[in-house]
Amino acid sequence: MVKALYRIGIAALLQWAAFSPPGAFGQVSEAEVRAVFVVKLASFIEQIGGETKGDSLVIAALGKDLTVDFIHALCATNASGEMYLSCYTADAARNIDSCDILYISAACENPVEAVRRAEINNCLTIGEEAVAKEAKLAVTLFTFEKKLRLRVNLDALERAQVRLSARVLKLAEIVRDADL
Amino acid sequence: MDSKRWSIFQAVTALTLFVPVLIYGARRVEAQQFDLSDLSIEELMSIEVSSVSKKLEPMSDAAAAVYVITSEDIRRTGYTTIPDVLRLVPGVEVAQVDLNTWAISARGFNSQMSSKLLVMVDGRSVYSPLFSGVFWDAQDMMLEDIERIEVIRGPGATMWGANAVNGVINIITKSAESTQGGLACSQVASSENFGLVARYGGQLGSNSQYRFYVKGFDRHMEAGNTGPDLPDYWSSTRGGFRVDSRISRKVDATFTGGLFTNRGQYSLNYITLTPPYSGLSDSELRSDGGDFTAKLNYAVSSKSTLSLMSYADYLEHNHPGIAEKRFTVDVGMQHIWSPNSRHEVVAGMEYRNSSDVLTDGLGVSTPVPSMVSWLYSAFAQDEIAILPAKLSLTLGSKFERNFSTDWEVQPNARVMYVPARGHKVWCSAAKAVRTPSRMEYSGVFRLAAIPPMSVYNPTPLPIQVLGVSQGQIVSEKLTATEVGYRVQPHRELALDISGYYNDYKDIRGFETGQTVVDMTGPIPNVTQYVNFKNTNYSHGYGGEVSIDWKPIDIWRLRGGFSVLRLETRAAVDNILLSGVLPPNADTVDPENQAWLQNSVSLPHNVDVDFIVRYVDHLRDRGVASYIAGDARVGWTVSQGLEIFTAAQNMFGGKHTEFQSDIMLMALSRDIEPQFLLGATWSFGHLTR
């Protein structure tokens, strides 16, 4: 009886999943959402002094993960709207050139040095919680109850001489270095 | 396993392995119709994302066999007790004896009171000095509060002290900040089981957070084909709190506490001097207790942190064999600092005082009903970066003085080499000791009764064998050598391999003592005293492999395999002892164990997990090998509400997992399949 019920349950689950109607998927890949968010964020960056970014934007990625793969895919399809996007991946902090956004994956080495270099170049640093505390990132992406959340470090923004628009700050948890 | 069971096993495994592939295919098709780039940042933050886990855990930098179980891992197993969760750690043996008793060990010597495994909860030792071991029924904390469980196989004595011989289990709970809001979880299960958990966390001023919880359950198990012909039960109520406070930018404090009361069935065999020379006791096991811990962290500088910790623990454990009331107080400090870029030093000291009052029970007594035991210790360890990011050496030692064996020194040396990115090779050599238990130090055990005119007793009087301590017992000693290799070729795949050789000396055994003929008592008998003495020695070797693979974003496979060979030899001085008390009468281990967990995140916020476990037979104990399957399906109906169902111990039907050869241990029962239905509701959470 128990075994039969179990088999029926598994079979039903399989059928249900396989024949779900299009659009029934309530969830999408976390990495994909992060990547789109990183690219979208480009439209909300301002230099101190009020300048908005020009019509081209460079995203650098340090390390390799699924989010980085999706960022590359988005750059290839130029998915940010009006801006021209280019992106590259660096395997070490010393290989980071000029960029507007630096995405730091959890798998990277020496994130502290990477952030230091990025801040000198007025670059916005974004990454996961795993490296946020050590590297003092400007924007930290994390997931809470299966939804993307972001934390903005005002001290890091000041160091990089970068501003984020009020629309982004309204969605974020605001912190300082000492809170990380 | 018979062919029918094997067919079911194959069918279910194949199905669950194909599910993610089908789903992934379906998702790829659908992804073409759903462009995330069209969404605003607000919309991106409102859609639910799927990830079996955010990422694979980064490879540990520790030169030791470490395995970490996260909060999410625990949730997805569907397990309801910590011992069940530990089944998924390679190299750890978990056997359920009855509803509230487990035998748990690492790398051998498994018994109901496994003496060589240290267990800590947030830095508080829950290892009982009475028989040397852990009362797992007293550690049934709220699983939702656990941040992670770190299991270190192999000696950890330099950092953790005596009794961390074959392993250390560190249970680390979540901060109050990360458990804000409310949570309620209720579940019903087969065999009239019912459980309820409730927790609430909030803010205390601007710099402090709190949470408190209550947990209660009532579990029943029918009498099986083996073991006592009585239903088993376990009911428990407990509650606790945690407060985290940031006193200043450099100082934070944590206070935790809890109270519990347990009632359960406990069946054991005890010795009698009249035929059939043993009796069966079915009585209630009652345990009550509480604990309070205070911890203070002071960030002296960016390179130096000082921690002070103190805890008090009260336990009243009314075991039918002997009743115990114990009060323990512990004070310790630890300092971590980096004098320069190549050194990270950890040093600390600790004092513990434990007083007890014992009441004699069935077959166990003590001439010293009340005793105060103590220990103080100091340790230091330096991690030296010989070649930064390439080669490191860790040297350290613990110096401990205790009331029973005086000074113990437990050094270790560990080397970690990183030949290339994603590859780590380590090796270590360490010494550790297991100090005598309270009852080995001053206890009297009625171990066996030998009928008259039998193989071991040609006399016309029954012989009772009494184990006693004559103050000659010293610590058991281990010299361990380990090697390990971790590789993470890319972010989605990790492999961890470790091997070890353990050389044990001074393992507790028995030595023939006095023989006394008692013709004056109500039952004339011969009493053969055997003295606890460190007569035995052992050696063991083996290895563990664990793999973690996330081939696609919604699918994760994890598995583990362990092999163990352990041999114990005794310097037996008496033919009677060799027959009646074999050297490993109270311990027994499976030689091979394996498990595989398949985790899939399906559409509509449905999580499916399936676990298959194999445990080898227990040699000479008549416990057969078994394959068991566990499954969980969880559906997040809306934000904060999850409904789940789980099944445990499928495939094998009823089976026995452990059997002890000595009296006074809980009698093993058939472990039966269990089905469970529950719901978890969380509400009013703050930002994370």
Explain how this protein is built.
The complex is a heterodimer of chains A (180) and B (688). With 180 residues, chain A is α/β, with parallel strands linked by helices. Helices cover 39% and strands 27% of the residues of chain A. In chain A, the strands form 2 sheets. In chain A, strands 4-3-5-6-7-8-10 form a 7-stranded mixed β-sheet. Chain A has a two-stranded antiparallel ribbon with strand order 2-9. In chain A, strand 6, helix 5 and strand 7 form a beta-alpha-beta unit. In chain A, helix 2 crosses helix 3. The termini of chain A are far apart. With 688 residues, chain B is mainly beta. Chain B has one domain (48-265, 272-683): Beta Barrel (Maltoporin, Chain A). Helix content of chain B is 9%, strand content 58%. Chain B is globular. In chain B, 45% of the residues are buried. The chains are: A alpha/beta (180), B mainly beta (688). Strand 1 of chain A pairs parallel with strand 1 (48-50) of chain B, so a sheet runs across the interface.
